Inverse folding.
């Protein structure tokens, strides 16, 4: 299947959003000492 300009824009946007999420996650971890998982959700303690 051919890649359309729309597909390329979505891929670029996804990359930008991932960078922003990474920055926000690092800021939250630094400010509040909350270790977050890769998905940005609070880490759950081991059972």
């Amino acid at each position: 299947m051919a890649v359309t300009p729309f597909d390329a824009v979505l891929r670029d946007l996804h990359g930008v959003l991932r960078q922003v999420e990474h920055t926000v996650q690092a800021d939250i971890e630094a400010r509040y000492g909350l270790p977050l998982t890769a998905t940005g959700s609070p880490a759950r303690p081991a059972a």
